[in-house]
Write a structure and sequence with these properties.
The complex is a heterodimer of chains A (148) and B (191). Chain A has helices at 7-14, 20-28, 30-57, 66-121, 129-138, 143-147. By secondary structure, chain A is mainly α. Chain A has two domains: 1-62; 83-124. By secondary structure, chain B is mainly α. Chain B has two domains: 7-111, Rna Polymerase Sigma Factor, Chain: A (Orthogonal Bundle); 118-191, Winged helix-like DNA-binding domain superfamily/Winged helix DNA-binding domain (Arc Repressor Mutant, subunit A, Orthogonal Bundle). Chain B has nine helices and no strands. The longest helix of chain B has 20 residues, at 23-42. Chain B is globular. Classes of the chains: A mainly alpha (148), B mainly alpha (191). The A-B interface holds A 7-8, 10-12, 14-17, 38-39, 41-59, 61-62, 65-67, 69-70, 73 and B 23-24, 27-28, 31-32, 35-36, 39-40, 45, 48-49, 53, 56-57, 60-61, 107-108, 111-113, 126, 129-130, 132-134, 137, 149, 151-153, 155, 158, 172-173, 176-177, 179-181, 183-184, 187, 189-191.
Chain lengths: 148, 191
Amino acid sequence: MSGHLSSVEISEWLAGIRDPDAERHLAECAGCAAELERAREPLARFGAATRAWCAAETPAPRPEPMASAVRRRRSLTAMRIALAAAAALMVAAPVYQHHQHAIEMARQDEVLLEQVQAEVSRSVPEPMQPLEKLVAWNSPSGQSGSSQ
Amino acid sequence: METTLAAEPSSMTAVAAGELADFDAVVRRYQPAVFRFLLASLREREAAENLTQECFLRAYQARRNFRGDASVRTWLMRIAVNLVNDRRKSARLRFWRRAAQTSLDVSFTGDWLADRRSSPEAEASAREQVQAVWRAAAELSERQHAVFLLRFVEEMEIREIAAAMGLQEGTVKAHLFRAVDTVRKKIGDTP
């Protein structure tokens, strides 16, 4: 090592990158050792201050044992699942009812269409059907129908 | 990100097994360190409290998978680091992080560990120095920030940080060097 520690070498040292030459130099050079200490000081203060601050902010330890906490969490999860299922049911029930209603409407429409079809296919209106039968009975072509 | 324990190698040591057998004692012993790391990382007390609880719940549920290669403390820190990473992925947190930073900086200045033997001027100077490091550290990349906190707040060894973060020791040193050099430049410690 040619001279004193550079700023980069001091940062390297603080980061745990230990060069044997630098180590030897630090053991011999009081100036570099002091410089390293001066660079370390703010970081050490920062660590101590942060620890002190966090200690003041640390919540009191929970009296609840961990196993109970896990059980409580599981029951909360189960409750969440149950609530989600209930919510899904609340949404699904109207949808299902709507679907059933649509099927029933379609069936009624079909019945109505069949009735309309039957009505339309009649050759004469219902009140006149006895007269039509009478006419058919008298006509030669109508004999085949009545003789069966 | 899934908190994995895959990197924890085989053969659970008797020490770790004994320690994990009384998990409530594990919580009592390590809760301050886990909370400290989470609070210093997130700068939001409520989030830190929630994630501390989450960290121990995950550890409790995975305790049978812990194979004892690293210490219990390192294992817990690894879970905590993963939780912080997960949390930071959320855009919502990025917003809260910015919002929380100012208010926590104010409270942080109040109760820091002062050397009561020093003069008021020296105390004020030291306080300013701590605040400057705090601000400079807040601007580091997430990985550099985590490494920086684990080293200078948790006072973990390089190999412990490597185990906690799932990184090679050389990678940890590189991140730590960049973090230290950046902080030193920002606080005016370097020429």
